[in-house]
Every structure is written in C-alpha cells, then in structure tokens.
Amino acid sequence: MKFADHPILVIEDDEDIGYILEAVLKAKNCTVQQARNGREALELIEREGLPSLILLDMRMPVMNGWQFAAAFRAKYDRRVPIVVMTAASDPEMRARQVQADGWIAKPFSIRALVECLQRHLPSDHLFNHVA
Amino acid sequence: MGPVIVPPSPTDLAPEKSAFFKAILNTIADPVFVKDDQHRWVLLNDAYCEFFGAKREDLIGKSDYDFFPGEQAKTFWAMDLAVLESGRTNENEELFTDRYGVTHTIVTRKSRYQNGDGRLFLVGTIRDVSGKKEAEAHRLNLALEHRARLEAERERKQTEESNARLHSILEALPVGVFVLDREGKVIESNAAANFIWTGGHTHFSGVSEHSIHQDWSPDRGGPLIPGDWAGVTAIRRAQAVLGEVADIRRRDGSNGTILISAVPLHDARGAINGAVVTNSDITQLRQLEVELRAAKETAEAASRLKSEFLDIAAHELRTPLTPLLALLENGIEQVTQNGRIPIEQLQKALKQVFRLNGLVDDLLDASRLEHGRLVLRLVETDLNGIVRECVSEFQARAPGRKIGCETPAGAVWITADPDRIYHVLSNLLDNAIRYTPERSPIEVVVTVLNGQVKVEVTDHGAGIAPEQQKNLFTRFYRANGEQMLRHPGLGLGLYICSQLVALHHGEVGVRSAPGQGSSFFMVLPRKGAKVA
C-alpha cells in the first residue's frame, strides 16, 4: 500500500488514541497511517515513502519521540513537518527539544487538531478544501 | 655661732712658744693647725705634718699659695676668710688623696680664735672619717642588697604566679595549642592539644610539628609535605596561617577533622623565634554539617520526587482524557450527521472513564494512607473466595492467558476488608499480566502457615534486578526506561498494596531474579491469630 498524495502519519503507542485519531481524520477525508513507536514509523516510511505530515507522541516504548525525531531529521532533514502531541506540562519546550514544526497539547479538541494540521500541511493539501 | 672664746691668760699669749702646749698638741691624733689672719701656718701638730706630708719648719710662716695652684689656694683662702670674718665655724667634708695614693674622706672643721691682742686666728682640725664612711657605705650596701633580694624574690614569685596563671589558662583552653621554637619543634603543648591526638596521655615536647601531624592529610588531598604544615609555614612566611582544615587519623585509629591556625612569634628585637599553632577539633561540627547536607539532599530529593510525580500524574490523567474528549466530540458529530454512533466508540469512551476513575482512586488512597485516614471495613471473610473470584475475573479479561489457581480445601478465614484485599490481589495479578509476555502463564497459590496465610502470585517474566526490588513498594517509584514507557502509571500501585496489607498487620514482598520470573506475595494473619 502506498501513501496517498498527502497522507498523515500518526505515531502513537496508545491504541485508543490512535483509533480515535484515525476515525476523526478519516472523517475529514484524510489518508492516515499508524505506527506504535518510532521504529515502526521509520520502517513504514522506508517501505511506503514520506508522508505529508507526522503527528508524533513523545513517550513511547522501543523508540520514543525524541529518538524518532533525531533519526528522521538525520535521514530526511526537514522535508516533512513534525507536530508533537504531548501531555507534558510544557508542550512548547517538548516541541523545541525535537525541533518540531508545531505542537498540540493533550487532551485536545478535534477543532484544535484540525487547525493545527491546517497550519502545518502543505497549502495544496486536500484537507484545506474539506475542513 | 663660734666657739666660746676664753680670754687668754698671760702664759697663753704666745702659745706657739710653749713647749708644754706643743707637747700636748702633738698627742692629739687628728691633724690640728692654726693660721694667722694672713693665711699663714703659725702652729701645727705632728699629725698635721704627717697628713700634709711636709716638715713643720717647711710649713710654718707659709700659706696655701706656696703649695697649691693659685686658683685652688685662692679658694681655700676665701673659705678661711669667711670663717675669720663671720666667726662662724665651718665644717666641710671632702675627699682627699694622700701621698700614697689612698683616698680618704675627711671632715675639716675651722673656727675663729681671737687672742688677747685682738688678733684673729683660724684653728682647724681635720678628722679622717673614711672608716666611718666605709662602714656607712657597707651598711647601705647591705640594705640595698637586702632590698634587691626582696625585690627579686617578689618578682620571681610574681613571675611564677603569672606563669602558673598563664599555664592554667593554656591548659583550660578548649583549643589545642602548640608552641613551636624557631625550628618548628614543639616546646609546649596544652591538654586539649594532647587530647586531640592521644586522648590525653602523651605530652608533646621536643618533637617536630610534622611528626605530630604525620597522620594528617590536608583537606585538599595529596601527600603530606613536612614544610607544608601551618606552624612551619607561618615561621617561613612570617605571617599568620588561618583556618586550614585537615582530616586526620588519630593515634587510636579514629578519624576527625581539625581546624588549624598558626601565628609567628617574635622576640624583643622583632625577629621570629617560633610560632603558636592552634588545633580546634571540629569533627562534630563537620559531622553535623554532613548530616545537615544529607537531610537537605533528602528533602530536596523528596521535593523533586513530588514535583516529578505531579508531572507524571498530570500526564497520566491527560492520557485517557485525550481519546475520551475526541471520542465524545466525534460521537456528537456522528450523531448529528448520521443519527447514530458506533457502540465500539462508546465502549472505548467508557474504558477511558474507568481508567481515569482508577487513577483518581489511587491518588486518593495514597493521600489517605499518607495521612493515616484510610479506614478499613473489617469483616470475617474467606480468603479462598476472594482469590478465586479475582482469578476468574482476570481469566475472563485475558482469555488467552493460563492463570493457575491453587487454594487449600475448605475456607481460610481472615479478618479483613474484602474490597481492599481484592484490590491488592488484582493489582498483583494486573502487574503479572502487564509485565510478562502474552502467552506466559501465571500461578496464584494460597498457603496456610500456622497463624498466617500467604497468597503468592508467580509469573515467568523477565524478573527484577535486586537493586530495583527494594524500591518497588516505595511511593512514586517507577522502574526506569522501557518498562515505564511500555506500562505507564502513577507509581502508586505497589505502594498502596504494601500500605493496605500493613493496615491488616500483614506484609507484602517479592522474590525475583533477572531471567527467573517474579513472585509477589502477601502474608496476612489468620482469623483469631495474635498480631504484632
């Protein structure tokens, strides 16, 4: 399976969060791929190619958000925007730590998520027309 | 007032011509002379001639001008004239050196005499008072010597008293004092100094400061250099060395910390002739400092732990809220658009609510336990029943998992809060399931031992390293790294278990080794058994 034109990669270890993110984004006509940790995500990108945006959880087993961001930037530089999802008390600092393009604090409303994605997705993204 | 002058008898008129008078005069041992008003000797006795060192015939009719330098003779004449004119007898003490070179103290007494013709004469007698003077001087010397002896004795006593006072002050000082000579050898030390080093048995004297300090190591570390010690340094640099700290090993083998200062000593001319070294034993102070620092570090660690816990708690509470919020928002949207919502989404939302409720329960329980406000509802209950119920619930939740359950026949009665015991057991079972691979079996075994009963939950997982085992039941403790990320939580579960079991007068524990699996157990008193 190939990513669609502007697919979103969700890297999140919590199954329930992953489930609802996928449901919400699919309802907005987005293509969604999921990985349970950084390593799975890197393998997926290797297989399927680069997504248009990465939604990244920080605390995950096997390979956490910090490790993933470092490995991803080393290999693909800044070709894809990374948006950090974090329940930490200072989400902005978390975003700076991994040089992320944006951040969204958990828990977040669907509206906030959509706005955040609109800011960081390429301007010709399908998402902009349906939101 | 002159002497009483008796008017001369006719035979007296020319006494210088009277052989009888001359003979009498010559029997007088003191020199006697008579001069006329022209300062000329007219009558002399033998003693005078002897005293003057001249013959009578060479003196009679002569004056001082014939024997003494002009100025001196003039002075003599002026003195004689004063007696002749005033009639007042003159007595004059003077030093006189005789012709043998011996100095005498003489008293010359001169009086005026007027003869029947009205002529004036000067009558002089000379008395050698040297012996008397010597005796007087001797007596004076004796008195002075006596006084000097008394003075010296008093001074010696004062010095002794002053020394004794200084010594007793030195001995009473709670600070060790060494007095060093110019070469750095100890010439005096007080009780405190000796006590610091030996417990008070040895007196340091005549040894080098270095040999006393040979067991010391400076606080900055490094080898001991003899010239490096405070007293020697103060002498060498000619300036005070203040507040050096040294960790020492005393001669009895014990360790201590000493504060050292040294000040050079100067002699009367200002040259350095030694030093005073003080040693203060600050071992207890240092100990206190170490304890205070440790207490501060413990407090800071506790505070850090608490603030880390708050971060973790916030994170843990937000984690179920994230899907819950999204599920509800999405559900509302779906109901609005389609008039219905998939049941799966509601089940997932409910699961997050239970998850949140569990976290809040744990937080409240931990808080109640910390403040001793958790109250047990004790009843007589069958432990076997609780164990079987709990195992069957977990078996239903994890159907793919083999959960063995071994209980003694019949009932095992305990006095306990069944909900709390159920909570502990489910916590142990939950951990066993969460921390071990999916197909790995778990056994729950109940054993009755005398007055106690033991419930043991054994898994075949990775096991726990010994250094982590002791922290497992500590509040806020979370295993580091991968385990924590795989299985997030508040770090309160096992803490709450251990506290709940302790409230039942029982205990929880773990037997485990890396690669060998883990056995978590709780031991509870049986009904009616005496509790500690």
> Which consecutive residue ranges of chain A, at least 5 long each, have pLDDT under 50?
none
Instruction: Round the mean pLDDT of chain A to the nearest integer and report it.
Output: 85
Which bin fits the share of residues in helices of chain A? 40-55%
Structural class of chain A: alpha/beta
Q: Which H/E pattern describes the elements of chain A?
A: EHEHEHEHEHH
- State the helix count of chain A: 6
Explain this structure:
The complex is a heterodimer of chains A (131) and B (532). With 131 residues, chain A is of the alpha/beta class. Helix content of chain A is 45%, strand content 17%. In chain A, strands 2-1-3-4-5 form a 5-stranded parallel sheet, sandwiched between helices. The longest helix of chain A has 13 residues, at 15-27. Chain B is an alpha+beta fold and 532 residues long. The model of chain B is unreliable at 7-13 and 218-224 (pLDDT under 50). Chain B has helices at residues 19-27, 46-52, 56-59, 70-86, 130-172, 191-198, 209-212, 230-237, 283-338, 343-370, 383-397, 418-434, 466-469, 482-486, 493-503; strands at 32-36, 41-44, 90-97, 103-114, 120-128, 176-181, 186-189, 216-218, 241-249, 255-266, 272-281, 379-382, 403-406, 413-416, 442-449, 452-458, 507-512, 518-525. In chain B, a hairpin with a 5-residue loop joins strand 9 and strand 10. In chain B, helix 10 (343-370) crosses helix 15. The radius of gyration of chain B is 61 Å and the shape is rod-shaped.
What attributes characterize this protein structure?
heterodimer, A: 131 residues, alpha/beta, five-stranded parallel β-sheet, 5 strands, 45% helix
In short:
The complex is a heterodimer of chains A (131) and B (532). Chain A is built from six helices and five strands. Chain A is of the alpha/beta class and 131 residues long.
